[in-house]
């Protein structure tokens, strides 16, 4: 059965920080941010945006009435959940108007959550080919002011409709995955910020990539030459370059050059947004599809998903004919172009704000809400109140 991505959209908050200006204030050579890690702008989430509101905005940008009737499963991948018990998918289900007879689940494993959602969605569609599944990857990457991870922060969400007979990308049913119990990145329940061993995490990312790519080749007899392009989880965009170099080690130089050409198209959006954890791989995919030249029907794309802690998976998909007709390039570019640049003082003020942790009610100042339909308006009686404009 032909199962895959029928629709895909993304959303990011309407404010950002210029990475060169942040570097200057931090006393760092700007090239360390713009070239060293490959970032130009960093999305910042004001208090009125959390993983739920980001996901709702991404979903509303692509869903129509037919989708809302046929979707019977909402899978919310996030490591920025807003409740230890209630799934963020439940809020998304309600706020987007999806029909009531749907299952809603939140999935967590670092940046791998949305990929887990896609795999579950494929199984569900195989059993229910007339249904659709909404898969979401929504996160706010937050490391704190003046921290080592500060330049790799970001915020945003990607929403995908998985269905039979998809119009964008058919997903192959052969993949290779691996799990290792390691401590490269994690966030204890008592901590507002993650604990990161950056060097070890980079090594683990590339190590699992080599392992799953090797297993994938053995299982499928495919080689680099079978792929038109590769997309990767991007905690920062330079990571994608390192991944291609790792995969092409020992290969003909022409293969590296060919994949590097498409790599630049696949990082355009991520350079403007930063790290969005579960959505980062799919933001890269969207960037490739919308910012790159139209690829031939049947072109195979490789995708590598990595979640610290750690799970890695390599899988692939084949492009459909006229896939560009079903994308939303202009609206996505508008989301990025219409943002407002924050001064460093404004950015530091926003990052320093947090919702009360003692149950105190709060009405959130929403003066900056000028893009997006959904936002967090208040917390009253320990219940989050979301608004649709």
TrEMBL record:
Domain Hydroxymethylglutaryl-coenzyme A synthase C-terminal: 175-248, 264-353
GO BP term, pick one: acetyl-CoA metabolic process
SUPFAM superfamilies: Thiolase-like
Signal sequence residues: none
Molecular function terms from GO: hydroxymethylglutaryl-CoA synthase activity
UniProt domain Hydroxymethylglutaryl-coenzyme A synthase N-terminal: residue ranges: 2-165
Pfam families, per database record: HMG_CoA_synt_C (PF08540), HMG_CoA_synt_N (PF01154)
Gene3D superfamilies per the UniProt record, alphabetical: 3.40.47.10
Residue positions of the active site: 79 (proton donor/acceptor), 111 (acyl-thioester intermediate), 233 (proton donor/acceptor)
Binding, (3S)-3-hydroxy-3-methylglutaryl-CoA: 29, 143, 242, 275
Record-listed substrate binding positions: 148
UniProt key word NADP: no
Alphabetically ordered keywords of this record: Transferase
Family: Belongs to the thiolase-like superfamily. HMG-CoA synthase family.
Name this protein carries in UniProt: Hydroxymethylglutaryl-CoA synthase
Organism: Alkalibacterium olivapovliticus
């Amino acid at each position: 059965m032909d199962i895959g991505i029928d629709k895909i959209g993304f959303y990011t908050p309407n404010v950002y920080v210029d990475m060169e200006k942040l570097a200057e204030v931090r006393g760092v050579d700007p090239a360390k941010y713009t070239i060293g890690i490959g970032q130009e702008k960093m999305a910042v989430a004001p208090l009125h945006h959390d993983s739920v509101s980001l996901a709702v905005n991404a979903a509303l940008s692509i869903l129509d009435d037919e989708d809302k009737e046929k979707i019977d499963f909402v899978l919310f991948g996030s490591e920025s959940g807003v409740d230890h018990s209630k799934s963020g998918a439940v809020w998304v289900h309600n706020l987007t108007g999806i029909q009531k007879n749907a299952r809603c689940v939140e999935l967590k494993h670092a940046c791998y959550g949305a990929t887990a959602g896609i795999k579950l969605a494929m199984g569900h569609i195989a059993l229910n080919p007339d249904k659709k599944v909404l898969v979401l990857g929504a996160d706010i990457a937050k490391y704190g002011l003046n921290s080592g991870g500060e330049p790799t922060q970001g915020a945003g969400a990607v929403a995908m409709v998985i269905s039979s007979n998809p119009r964008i990308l058919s997903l192959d049913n052969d993949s290779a995955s691996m799990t290792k119990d390691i401590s490269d990145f994690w966030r204890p329940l008592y901590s507002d910020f993650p604990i990161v061993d950056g060097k070890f995490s980079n090594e683990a990312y590339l190590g699992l990539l080599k392992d799953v790519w090797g297993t994938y080749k053995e299982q499928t007899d495919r080689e680099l030459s079978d792929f038109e392009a590769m997309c990767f989880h991007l905690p920062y965009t330079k990571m994608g370059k390192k991944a291609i170099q790792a995969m092409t080690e020992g290969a003909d130089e022409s293969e590296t050059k060919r994949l590097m050409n498409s790599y630049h198209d696949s990082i355009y959006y991520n350079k403007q947004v930063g790290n969005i954890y579960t959505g980062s791989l799919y933001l890269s995919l969207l960037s490739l599809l919308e910012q790159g030249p139209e690829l031939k029907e049947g072109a195979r794309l490789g995708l590598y998903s990595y979640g610290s802690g750690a799970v890695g998976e390599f899988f692939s998909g084949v492009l459909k004919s006229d896939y560009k007709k079903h994308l939303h390039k202009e609206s996505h570019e508008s989301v990025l172009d219409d943002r407002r640049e924050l001064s460093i003082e404004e950015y530091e003020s926003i990052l320093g704000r947090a919702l009360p942790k003692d149950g105190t009610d709060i009405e959130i100042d929403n003066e900056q809400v000028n893009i997006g339909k959904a936002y967090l308006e208040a917390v009253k009686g320990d219940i989050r109140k979301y608004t649709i404009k």
